[in-house]
Amino acid sequence: MTMHNKSFDTFQFAGMALDPIHVGTGGARLGRVDNTIVRDPVTKIPKIPGSSLAGVMRAYTAMKLEAEQPGRKINGKDKPYYPDCAGLGQPARDGAGGHCGQANCPVCTVFGFAKGVGSSGGFAGLAAFSDMQVLLFPVASQLGPQWITCPMALRQTDPDELSNLDDLPDQHVVYRKADKTANQLSLNLGWLFLPAKTDWQQMGDVVQKIANTLGVPGYIISRLSVVSDKLFTYIVNSNLEVRTSVAIDPATGAAEEGALFTYEALPRGTVLFWELTCRNPKHFKVDGREITAVRTPDEVKKVLTGNGSGSNHSPHDYLEHLGIGGMASRGMGRLRVLNADSDKSGKEGS
Ligand SMILES: [Zn+2]
User: Fold this and answer.
1) How far is the CA of 309 from the centre of ligand 1 (A)?
2) Spacing, Cα 80 to ligand 1 middle (Å)
3) How far apart are CA 166 and CA 176, in angstroms?
4) pLDDT tens digit string along 197-235?
């Protein structure tokens, strides 16, 4: 097979929380927190499910297309990109609404579409989103904010170069880059007080990777510390935001009596990592027809990132302004994508 016929490309992204982000489990209680966030069942580290990301990106893609090409009609009937192609896509009983399912619709081809009333089967979509994992986590220290990470969190970003990332020589210290602040012999992370070291050999590779490929800004890189996997899990879970809020009765707009509740969130400044797998449109047909909305895996990615012209808003820009997760009306959820036009990762289908 030639390069043009590869079955998929995978693109890596990093994004920084501009607000606390709450992607909830739907009412599960943990200790004193009423509304907990989703955690990885194995590592116990909070994450944002890929399905949540896919859901908001679908909505923002439809909004962007609606803003650029308002009043779309199909076969003479109104079929706006938004809200029809956003959301879960089941049409009403009279056939109104629902995904358009057209081979030239960027929303329905990239994100898939539901089976319509009386029509043929749905389509799974060309884009697949991984879960968004915590890559760098901000913690207060005597040196100002520090961002911590661990070998487990870093390994996911580079299956080739970092796959052999050693565990740290010492489990109970923080490793920092050797620079002018590195003569500090210890670092307090939250209320943990840990000895600091600079002799972890792979620190340089790690820094280069996250700075060059993922676009993590220099002010974060210069405040980077690496801890063991176990310590990372512990520090993240003991430094989440926990907020208390008052439930508002939607009927009266007044606070419900006794309705105080607490909820967790990833703090502002958290850097998340995720992958976008883009299938090759040439390998699929929609309703027996070739897909025309996008022609290559790179074009699938560009539906989300924009075409790089700078002036057009992309769905990623909507993510920065409208956010992800719950509590958006309480000023939560905005996320800035750090590497706006991600290059390919090493992974691609043959
Ligand atoms: Zn559509």
Assistant:
1) 24
2) 9
3) 15
4) 888 888 888 888 788 889 999 999 989 999 999 999 999
